[in-house]
Amino acid sequence: MKITVLNGSPRKQNTAAMVDAFAEGAKAAGHEVEILQVGRMKIAGCLACEYCHGKGAGKCIQKDDMEKVMPAYMDCDMIVFASPIYYFDMTAQLSAAIQRVYAIGKPPKAKAAALLLSSASPNPFEGAIATYRTMAAFMGIEDKGIFTAAGDENQSEAKLAEIRDFAKAL
Ligand SMILES: Cc1cc2nc3c(=O)[nH]c(=O)nc-3n(C[C@H](O)[C@H](O)[C@H](O)COP(=O)(O)O)c2cc1C
Question: Ligand 1: distance of its center to the CA of 8 in Å?
Answer without folding.
Answer: 11
